[in-house]
Amino acid sequence: MVSKIIYVLGESLMDCVAQSDGRLRPLMGGSPFNLARAAALRGAKVGYLNPLSTDSFGDQLAQQLKQDGVSTLAPRSAFPTSLAVVQITNAQPSYGFYREGVADRDYTPEAIISVLRESSTAGVLHTGSLALVPPEHEKVLSVVRAAKLMGWTISVDVNLRPKLASNMALYRSAVLETAALADWLKASDEDWSTLGLGELTLDQATEAADFFTGNGTQRVALTFGGRGAFLSVEGKTAVQAVPRVQIVDTVGAGDTFWGNCVADWAMDTNGAAQRVNDTLRRAMLAAAINCTRAGCQPPTLAELDTPKP
Question: Residue 270 has what DSSP assignment?
């Protein structure tokens, strides 16, 4: 079995979740941060590339990554931890972000590229979400292009955040430019709509995946919230319904889903197309287990093998 390391580039932050009494409850988050944890808990070897703050929130984030088996690859930053204020209505989160002068943006493309070069073998570079919001995407694109030239596999979770974009046309262009470089890509039906591509149903997933595979993307996941998900791996496809669970909230469900897909492929680089159904089933189960918990709390491999009722 041949495996690859996963390096993750993107935001870490504290989700300050509004409570019924008006207080804010801080929970660790950030889509790439969540994905790094999910992939490591699944059993993959994972490194996190962005700096963490030297503040108390940064200490918590660093401790969580260490606990989950994720290596931190950048020096700590004196800038503060990024914050998101989260309102949850009917188990669905909405976000407001505080992203200026924050630790996870305190890096240069050259520093990240240097870390990639120091790796003994080319692995998987994952990015997406807030990292694709202009002008941050320019730094990310520099890293992605360099990684691609070095033979790294590029994973992108589109995970659009339109509230952060001052210019949606520029944001869409940045996302599509990055997506065109992806070997593996995940997008939701909401992402599809926000990109200006119209409404998307599960019945249309195969044709929608062709939009990305036409640019050379080899593996595409399309998620449809409570209606299920679609996965295409080198032309082999699978569709899976959402497992029935008691939902607490859906924070980090997509990150957990894609983290498990990426981990599956990185841990065993052979035969991915042949196990497309199993990859999707376990990723959906991981996301469902996460939804039974407050905030993003991805399951371990043992929990996937023996899920709780």
Answer: S
- Residue-range domains of the chain with CATH: 6-305 (3.40.1190.20)
CA dist 304 to 31, 42, 88, Å?
21, 9, 26
Q: Compute the radius of gyration of the chain from its Cα atoms.
A: 18
Backbone angles phi, psi at 166, to 5 degrees: -80, -20
* 135: preceding bond cis by omega (within 30 degrees): yes
The CA distance from 150 to 117, in Å, is: 8
Report, as an integer, the average pLDDT of 70-93: 89
Nearest by Cα to 99 from 125, 136, 63:
136
Whether 279 has a pLDDT exceeding 90, the answer reads: yes
> Which two tokens mark 158?
């589109």
Query: How far is Cα 282 from Cα 265, in angstroms, rounded to an integer?
Result: 12
HSE, CB side, 13 Å, CA atoms: give it for residue 213: 18
> Binning pLDDT at 50, 70 and 90, where does residue 85 land?
confident
Contacting residues for 59 by C-beta, under 8 A, at least 6 apart: none
**CB 53 within 8 Å of CB 106:** no
Quote the pLDDT of residue 290.
96
CA distances from 300 to 41, 157, 279 (A): 5, 21, 15
Q: What are the structure tokens assigned to 204, written together?
A: 């249309």
Give the global pTM.
0.94
Q: Look-up: residue for tokens 């046309």? A: 169
Query: Which of 74-88, 133-147, 179-193 has the lowest average pLDDT?
Result: 74-88
CA distance 119 to 58: 25
CA atoms within 13 A on the CB side of 16: 12
Measure the CA–CA gap between 123 and 226, rounded to whole angstroms: 32
> Does pLDDT of 194 surpass 90?
yes
pLDDT of 95 strictly over 80: no
